[in-house]
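TA notes, week 10

Several of you asked for a full example with nothing omitted. So below is the full record: structure tokens for the whole chain, then the designed sequence directly under it. When grading your own attempts, check the secondary structure regions first.
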């Protein structure tokens, strides 16, 4: 069986593995505060279909209440432990959705797929609304393949040990503004992470989608080029990894035997 990866933009990805649809950090908004979606059409309604949703941390471009509201009733949403206390507004969707909080190292199973939470090196606070610290997470989705969704993270020494063996890596390679703050991967650091993780395939995410309003001319390469730069860096640092730079809404199939085909 093949695992299908679809990138909808930013950190929003659908992973279809063993008949289970896993959706990461859903963000379906045309505008978010001072950010606007500058590239790619809004994901279609079908993008909100999921058996389980993974939320990596509390920042509004990853934990977006309006996008969670588009999920079907009783959809399971995995969240970092402490999220509901830190974000009281989640009560608006808690009546319809099944909210499950995890700490790093904990896991849940959904059919033939197991999801394990892993650490991330990133600020987990819900700024500017509150300063309660909640651990940011990545996730490993294990079924026909082991797919690592990094969420937002910086490079950290124990990354490969915490993630463990993986077949597919969904790595952030940029951001939504001219400058990346602490706790992020740019294209070069993402390629270093790729070399440590040594998956069979990788997809760059978290770039080229949202940008601050009125700042199109400020360091525009930080919007346009991270995906291409990641491909170049990865070819040098991890040449054995098949890197798939997807367009918004595009999918890639990763076969169980290690053959990849884009579509």
């Amino acid at each position: 069986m093949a695992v299908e990866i679809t990138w909808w933009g930013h950190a929003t990805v659908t992973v279809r593995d063993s008949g289970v649809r896993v959706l990461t950090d859903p963000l379906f908004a045309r505008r978010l505060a001072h950010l606007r979606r500058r590239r790619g059409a809004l994901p279609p309604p079908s993008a909100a279909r999921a058996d389980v949703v993974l939320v990596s941390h509390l920042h509004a471009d990853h934990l977006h209440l309006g996008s969670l509201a588009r999920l079907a009733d009783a959809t399971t949403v995995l969240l970092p432990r402490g999220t509901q206390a830190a974000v009281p507004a989640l009560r608006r969707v808690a009546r319809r959705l099944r909210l499950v909080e995890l700490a790093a190292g904990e896991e849940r199973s959904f059919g033939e797929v197991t999801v394990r939470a892993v650490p991330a090196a990133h600020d987990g606070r819900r700024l500017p609304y509150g300063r309660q610290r909640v651990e940011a997470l990545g996730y490993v989705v294990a079924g026909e393949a082991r797919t690592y969704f990094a969420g937002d993270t910086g490079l950290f020494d124990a990354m490969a040990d915490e993630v463990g063996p993986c077949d597919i890596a969904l790595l952030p390679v940029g951001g939504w503004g001219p400058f990346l703050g602490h706790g992020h991967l740019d294209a070069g650091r993402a390629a270093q992470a790729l070399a440590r993780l040594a998956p069979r395939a990788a997809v760059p995410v978290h770039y080229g989608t949202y940008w601050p309003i009125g700042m199109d001319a400020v360091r525009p390469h930080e919007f346009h080029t991270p995906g291409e730069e990641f491909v170049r860096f990865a070819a040098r640092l991890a040449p054995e990894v098949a890197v798939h730079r997807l367009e918004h809404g595009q999918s890639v199939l990763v076969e169980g035997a290690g053959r990849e085909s884009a579509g």
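The chain has a mean pLDDT of 93. Use that as a sanity check on your answer.
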